[in-house]
Amino acid sequence: MFDVKTVVIVRYEEELFPGIVTSVDERDARVSVMQRSGQLWKWPDQKDEIDYAYKDVVEKMRQPVKKSHKRELYDIPELQKVWG
Question: Which domain of life does the UniProt lineage start with (predicted)?
Answer without folding.
Answer: Eukaryota
